[in-house]
Fold this sequence. Notes:
This protein is mainly alpha-helical.
Amino acid sequence: MATTGFLYPFALFMLAILVGTLLPARHLPSWLPNDKLLHALAYGLAAVLLILALPPGQGRWIGLVLLFLFGWLLEHLQRYVPGRGYSRGDLAANTLGIAGGLTGTALAGL
């Protein structure tokens, strides 16, 4: 039940992840919840939007791998952002979020 109608929301959400990830720490709101929770929720929602945007098949798997690699790249780029840095924990939370999004959509029959 994929529809390209989810492609734009996915792209906008990925832009939000990009901006939020590469903002210097001093620009982040102090009220944000746990960092790892944010990573898991963000990448989980990104996985769901990606799955809804792509037709079933290998394209979805390739998309999910690219989503993981995007998170990995952003983690490495954070080394150059003031007050930010690479975190294996963040990468693990991204991976758990992607797995959760995949599991949720599979259980929902998407």
